């Protein structure tokens, strides 16, 4: 009987335990991707980027004598129908750790078992299963540094090689056409502009990792904080769809450390921030929906997402160059440098005293590397409401941060056209990427600041002090 391989956020062939086990069984393997609510509910950019990933995997599978069967509907109903149609005796998948996926997958597992079909879930999306990492006292870590010390010496094992040709079933079940899913339809901006910055698929991800190790790992620690310098791996975009596994990155980082590449360990430390985000989400799933620290529930956040200063933030027109460059980078590329994410998020939650959920939702709609765990942790870390967060009184000043991390003005010039006689293509691309309804053009004057930095800071601290009493 064939094995159904239910693919979700593991759109690769190498280092894929669920696929590896299916291939080794010698039975026919039927790879399936299901467009269920977890796909339909994605933000616009993430959904669009997912489509590129599904397309790339479809080609890759075809090269392996296989196919990717596409179906829509609730996962349990789709799998049930596929078992009927194919006579499959087992379903394999890689585990996910967000609460919605856990509820869905548990129900699917129970339903399959009830009808005598083996349902097997496998690791692969994180380095270590969240329930296997505990503090010395027992229980999960709530602070990053001890978490890092707790996992740095652990071995996630060697990555698995990609299987050869996959045994095909005698007859393939019918499927839908990816183009008919119109996964890019919700983009409020030029999808082609964003697509030009994406590197979808397993082969592209592997190239990216190799390039990083070869060209950037040495100087990573020294340069990773400068948003105008291309010094980081950009692998988040591939990791989020599972086009590469964290274990493959871990193994490459370890080898680079052994070869004496100075920044390699720091790179693994950042990878472990992702791991930490997943473990936190698994143990405290409420991090996705509300303040991780409940005392923040009483904070007088602005919750009006259409307030003029919030609209200015979304449009990259706050008059604060670091914030605006960051937001424009995201519009054009679907990505944002980590330092810029911190500055843009801090400005929204502190200087504009606006709820982090508004920022999170905007990022979810605009990031091609949107990741359920890393995004929620990032926002709550910056806002001060999360675990191991920056203390509230430490408010990033976007002006001094720009002087420090963009001393030669490279980032600013790359993204802000106004005031430049010959703005670079990146800065001009922003005006092609934003919705027409915003009515923006590069000939407009650069806006005056929507809030005075000193006043904004003082207002946020006063509100925080009042809340603390
Ligand atoms: P590199 O510097 O090359 O790091 C390698 C990998 O480590 C990354 O690909 C990523 O998987 C992981 N990593 C690095 N930094 C972090 C971090 N601070 N937290 C968690 N994982 C990290 N990351 C996402 O992948 N998706 C998101 O939706 C996301 N939203 C964020 C929102 C805010 C407000 C903040 C402050 C951070 C967010 N991050 C998010 C984390 C971080 O900004 C990105 O992972 C990083 O910029 C990706 O670039 P890179 O792949 O070049 O990273």
TrEMBL record:
Q: Does the keyword Flavoprotein apply?
A: yes
Q: Which InterPro entries match?
A: Crypto/Photolyase_FAD-like_sf, Crypto/Photolyase_N_sf, Cryptochr/Photolyase_FAD-bd, Cryptochrome/DNA_photolyase_1, DNA_photolyase_N, Rossmann-like_a/b/a_fold
Q: Name one Pfam family in it.
A: FAD_binding_7
Q: Which domain of life is it from?
A: Bacteria
Q: Which family does it belong to?
A: Belongs to the DNA photolyase family.
Q: Which Gene3D superfamilies match?
A: 1.25.40.80, DNA Cyclobutane Dipyrimidine Photolyase, subunit A, domain 3, HUPs
The residues covered by the Photolyase/cryptochrome alpha/beta domain are 1-127
Q: Which cofactor does it need?
A: FAD; (6R)-5,10-methylene-5,6,7,8-tetrahydrofolate
Query: Which protein are we looking at?
Result: Deoxyribodipyrimidine photo-lyase
Q: Does the keyword Flavoprotein apply?
A: yes
Which UniProt key words apply to this protein?
Chromophore, FAD, Flavoprotein
Coiled-coil zones? none
- PANTHER family listed in its UniProt record: CRYPTOCHROME, CRYPTOCHROME CIRCADIAN CLOCK 5 ISOFORM X1
